[in-house]
Amino acid sequence: MHTILITGFEPFGGESDNPSWQVAKALEGWQPNEECIVKAVRLPCTFADSLPTLYSALESLSPVMVIALGQAGGRAEISLEKVAINYQDAPIPDNAGKQPHDTPVVPSGPTAYFSTLPLNRLVNALNEAHHPASVSYTAGTFVCNHVFYGLMHALAHHTEVRAGFIHIPYSPAQACKHRAPSMPVGDVVAAMKIAIELSLLDDDVTAVCEGMLH
Hints:
By secondary structure, the protein is an alpha/beta fold.
């Protein structure tokens, strides 16, 4: 059985919950096919500990696909992030009180990495299923981008593992407090199932999975 790793974050910024983790947790144990199963891991919303937690999961699970989820308050649709940049400039302190400015994620690392998820096909499929989605070209400069860049850097020489980052809107409970756009967690879960299934059907990923089965 091959693993699809889905990560979400703990609450941050004074929130009592984080929809990214709610979605990831809801997907735990789901099987998109007979060969794969989803495992969910919650990441701390800190610059110091988020990547060690992620790297530990990568090492122990050896996933065939990784989708990292994050909360993007104020966005009205699912944002499939295209590019992770080697730059961090925290607008607020993380959960450990750290607020790095104008520093790289990985010293001497490449300027950027691109998602290896089939973004355009995912956007088309999600919109056809009435889940508002688009490709985004900014994952920010907070812990989400930090994790996105660190993930792609870790997998730079593992091209058989498809990976990327997806931002999701506030949950309705959060939106009532912030008077901002929202999306029900159940709808996001359904959208992520579509995204996972479609990514696994991609020719390159299918070939990898079939090769690993023999």
